[in-house]
Description:
This protein is of the alpha+beta class. 47% of the residues lie in helices and 15% in strands. Strands 1, 2, 3, 4, 7 and 14 form a 6-stranded mixed β-sheet that branches.
Amino acid sequence: MLKSTLLTAVTATALTFSTWATAQAVDLQFYFPVAVGGKAADTIKELTDGYMSANPDVKIDAVYAGSYQDTVAKAITASRGGNPPQLSVILSADMFTLIDEDLITPFDDYLTTDEEKEWLTGFYPAFMENSQTGGKTYGIPFQRSTPVLYWNKEAFKEAGLDPEVAPATWDEMVSFSEKLTKKDANGNVSQWGVRIPSSGFPYWLFQGLAIENGAILANAEGNKTNFDDPKVVEALEYLVDLSTKHEVMAPGIIEWGATPKAFFEGQTAMMWTSTGNLTNVHDNAPFDFGVAMLPEKAQRGAPTGGGNFYLFKGASDEQLDAAVDFVQWITAPDQSAKWTMATGYVAPRPATWETDTMKKYAEGFPQVLVARDQLDHAKAELATYQNQRVTGVLNDALAAAITGQKTAEEALSEAQKQADAILAEYR
C-alpha cells in the first residue's frame, strides 16, 4: 500500500513537473535574410539547431525571409498585423526605420548583469555606429560586412601586372583596368578590367567611393544627407568615367547578383562586392584570387554593411530573454567563427579572431583578414529615417548618371532636394 501510494505521488510529481516545463517552454520566430551565395542558410539552421539542443526549453522557428528588402518588408507587415517575429536579422541601415515604426526594443533593457553589459562592449566600434542611437543599443552586429576588391591573379599575370599587388588608388584602378580589358579588332569586349555593381543597393558600393574621396553621405542622427557635396559629385563622376571615358567597365547598370559569376567566368578581372561573398568566391573561383581594401583617393575607406539582430515589440519578457540569450550564444567566439568560415562575413567581435580555430583558418586563407583590417578605415553605412525612401532617391540618381540621363551634378542635386523634403520633419 505504501509502495503504491509512493508510486502515485512520484507519478503525480513527474506529471506536474512535465506540465510546468511545457508551460515554461519558449517559442521564438526568427527571420533571417540571405544576400550572398554560399552556405549561409544551411549554417543558420545548423547553429539554430545547436542552440536548441543545448536549450531544449527553447524552440526556434528560423524562417528564411528572402533578401534584406524582403525581410524588412515581411517583418514590418507581420508586426502591423499583430504577429511580429520576436527576433530578426535586418540591415543595420534600417535601424532608424524600425525605430520610427515603433517596432523594436533596445537590447539594453535585457542586459542586466555585469557580464552581459561587458559582452555589449566587445563588438568592433565601426559596426556599432549603425547599431546604437540616443544612448541605446537597438542592433547587435551579426552578418556584417564591408565591400572589398577581388582580383583574378591569372588575369593580372597575363596582362603583365604583378599578380600579388592590387590597385591601391583610383588612378591605379584605372591604369590596371586598361591593361586588363580585352577587346577584339571590332571593339567587342571579352574581359572588362573592373566591375562595380549598380543594381540592388547601388548606394552601398558607391558610398565606398564617396568615403574614399573624404565625403560622408549622411549625419549620425539620420536626419540629414550630403548628396550634393562636391566630393560626392566627383565620386559619381569617377564611377561613370570608368565606363564612358576610360572604357574599362561595362556601360549601363551592372547586376549585383550576376557579378561573382562574371568574375568566375573571366568576364571581369576585378570586382567590388561584399566580403560576405568571400566563401562563395573561395569555393567557386577556378583561379587564384586576391582580396584587397578598396582603393583610395583622399583616404582609405569603406562603408560597413550587412545585418544586425533586432528585438521586436509584442513579445513576452520570457521570449525576449530567450532571444537575447540566443543572440549572445550565436555571437560567441565558437559560433561566430563557424559563421565567418561558412560565409565570409566579418566576425563582429575581436574575441572571435583570437580563437585557435580562426587563427588556423586565417593562416590558410589570409584573404579573410582584409575586411577585418579595413574596419580601421570604415564608416557607418548610409542610414537615415525613412531609409528606404532616401536610399531609393540616391539609387535613382546614381542610375540616372550611370545611364547618361543626367550629369552627376544634376542627379545628385535633385536627390539632395528630395532627401531634404523627406527628412525635414526629423530635424
